[in-house]
Design goal:
It is a single chain. This protein has helices spanning 2-9, 14-24, 28-39, 53-63, 69-81, 84-94, 99-111, 115-128, 131-143, 147-157, 162-174, 178-189, 285-293, 306-316, 320-335, 340-357, 362-381, and strands at 218-227, 234-243, 268-274, 280-282. The chain is an alpha+beta fold and 390 residues long. Mean pLDDT is 78; it is low at 1-8 and 246-257.
Length: 390
């Protein structure tokens, strides 16, 4: 899988060459797509049904790194050629240094119907204290059926017209806006910290942050209303139980839910995941010690640069599967010569455990094959004394 991805994104691959040629020929969309291709993992896909603003904000922050000078150049060229998403990214990058030019770019993108530009303009006006201008932009978005505009309009109207505000929040929540869903849940709970409906709105699974592996045992243990460090407001948050150390795959598996921590041995840590921004924070002492060892006093994958997030993910990767595979191979070889029903069976069990938890399973398969051969051949060779030489 990794090899095919590398070949697809290689600078010499036909698709990339065609995209670059189109970008050099002046195609604005090709320029934008080529810039995203150069950014690679730093350009995550947008969440279906959600505003692109958070994604574009992350892109703008990534482009501040001097290592992405070529990608930034293509984004700027795409902006000049008329790509509205590139305009928004460039405006975000220019906002502090050249506010007038940033507003000009956002205005041009908004005039072309870009809802993300409208949302950011409304947010800027709200930060400036121009509530009427912000309400106008959010109202325009709400009129277009944009869930983020509905949610923002509902938030602004909550103090002056709670009924109308709840109507807008309900419409945004029905459209899939997790911020509106969280606000409604917080309002229904009265802001109290207690167990809420476990189904809506869904918080981000820690494994989706790219920090924990897809096979990491994770269980959701609770849902509360709490102050989010990143959002700066009360939101719905899920408490996740994560096994952060090597474990031996012993425990229950729930159909349709993947791995859970139920019944499994290993060091557990608790993290809270905000349903609105997807941030992840340590809850207990074990989690705090764990993230400190990985490079910070607190840990929020949503705030990390893509390169640092990738390094953290590698550092947090469970090393037990690879170690177990190597040990299974050694024990399988030992089974050829002595105690095949002891070392061979133990090697098979270790191989199976590593196969279950290892994303790349070639080494685990080799370990299982060697363990089986060692058990069978060793038993045949020592059939009179299968537990040893005798």
């Amino acid at each position: 899988m990794r090899a095919s991805k590398t070949s697809t994104t290689s600078p010499t691959s036909p698709k990339v060459s065609q995209l670059r040629q189109a970008a050099q020929a002046g195609d604005a969309n090709a320029m934008w797509r080529y810039a995203l291709l150069l950014l690679g993992p730093s350009a995550p896909p947008a969440v279906p049904g959600q505003s692109l603003l958070r994604w574009l904000l992350d892109l703008a922050k990534t482009l501040e790194d001097g290592a992405h000078a070529e990608a930034r150049d293509w984004v700027w060229r795409a902006s000049e050629a008329g790509n509205t998403q590139a305009m928004v990214v460039q405006a975000i990058g220019l906002e502090r240094a050249d506010r007038d030019n940033a507003e000009r770019l956002l205005g041009q993108a908004a005039d072309r119907g870009d809802t993300t530009a409208m949302l950011y303009l409304g947010t800027m006006r709200q930060r400036d204290g121009d509530q009427q201008a912000a309400r106008d932009w959010f109202g325009k978005l709400a009129g277009l059926g944009d869930s983020a505009g509905m949610a923002k309009l509902g938030e602004m109207q909550m103090a002056e017209d709670p009924a109308a505000a709840r109507d807008w929040l309900a419409k945004a929540a029905a459209a899939g806006n997790v911020g509106a869903q969280s606000d409604l849940a917080v309002a229904a709970s009265g802001g109290a910290s207690h167990v809420l409906d476990p189904a809506h709105p869904p918080a981000q699974d820690p494994r989706q942050t790219g920090v924990f592996g897809p096979r990491t045992p994770v269980s959701r243990r609770g849902r509360v209303v709490a102050d989010c460090v990143k959002c700066g407001r009360k939101t719905v948050q899920d408490i996740f139980d994560v096994i952060v150390s090597a474990w031996f795959g012993v425990g229950l598996r729930h159909r349709g839910r993947g791995l859970t921590t139920d019944g499994k041995a290993g060091q557990r840590a608790r993290f809270s995941a905000c349903a609105v921004c997807g941030c992840l924070y340590p809850v207990d002492a074990t989690a705090c010690q764990f993230v400190q060892a990985k490079g910070g006093e607190f840990f929020n994958p949503a705030k990390l640069a893509p390169e640092r997030r990738a390094r953290a993910a590698r550092a947090m990767r469970n090393r037990f599967p690879g170690q177990a595979s190597v040990l299974a191979i050694i024990l399988g070889l030992v089974a050829f010569f002595a105690a095949p029903l002891v070392w061979g069976i133990l090697a098979i069990l270790l191989g199976l455990a590593s196969y279950r938890e290892q994303p790349r399973r070639g080494l685990a398969v080799a370990a299982i094959v060697i363990a089986v051969l060692g058990t069978v051949i060793g038993t045949v060779l020592h059939h009179a004394h299968p537990f040893g030489y005798g």
